[in-house]
């Protein structure tokens, strides 16, 4: 039995033009790009353009900015806060906020240091326990939010204060615990110097993307829906290959592929897959888009809310571990200062909406690249931290304005 196509105003069969894009080739994608821009569906375009502009400006001011050493250091510097930001993305997709992430990261770094140094635990076991503690802290917030009805802003603000006190208590009167050389410090100090490591990763990423694209195309054809053209797949794969091998080339000019960056990229890819390709991920988008509709569709809203805050806590703990690894110590300053604000700013600047229902964990990667590029470029110019905060704040405001305007455009075009 075949379905009839809905008739348009003139009585002719109408087909959503977005379904024909892949069959029309590059001309179709150009038209789709224009439609998305007019409809406010900007995606990662603004942040990519902004990142290119930032790099060009700072390279013009100081030719050391795009040097292999600076870019390699930048790729490691983004990891700790970037991991926290990945967890923040999950919370923002619900249209909520987690103000405790910075404090949770500091508290869990303190737990890690006490267990591995003070108690002599195996470093790997200490890290697992620290991440579990972070997840439990997040679950605690999620319970009061989802089950009791306490606003996320309030419960995580209370958590921020409580976990900061917990961090100070765990660290004791000295306030700092130095981490010896070993597994924990190696997280941010290990580089795969063999050139095959970076190039092999680039080749694997390119081949994996090509394989997924071909398999997806075959499934679309089997289902009888429009699929990508061969030219489109080749073009997308070529663009990814240029970027991946370009990054590999630059990293190999310094110390090679950083382990920390490899772990961060793996986290971003896996979490994006969970959000985009699993029932659980689609449930998060559904709850963030329209909670009542999600509830009527049979989604366990309370479970989604609690689990998302647990995920945020676990990633905050993981970020705290990498922050401690970077400076080889856990102190009262770990997770404090501007860590929380930078993690939230990265997610928003990278394209995750503050209003919920739209975003990606790639936002954490892109946003941190923007923030850390600004910090790195201004440090090379000798600009004070005060100016760095002002510029980062301006970039954050611009990202929120773009998000608000794009939402208004989508409402006007009936796609909100």
UniProtKB/TrEMBL annotation:
Keywords: Cell inner membrane, Cell membrane, Membrane, Sugar transport, Transmembrane, Transmembrane helix, Transport. GO terms for cellular component: plasma membrane. InterPro entries: ABC_transp_permease. It is a multi-pass membrane protein. The chain crosses the membrane at residues 42-62, 74-94, 101-118, 124-146, 153-171, 191-212, 233-251, 257-275, 302-325, 337-355, 362-380, 386-405. GO terms for molecular function: transmembrane transporter activity. It is found in: Cell membrane. Part of the binding-protein-dependent transport system for D-xylose. Probably responsible for the translocation of the substrate across the membrane. This is Xylose transport system permease protein XylH.
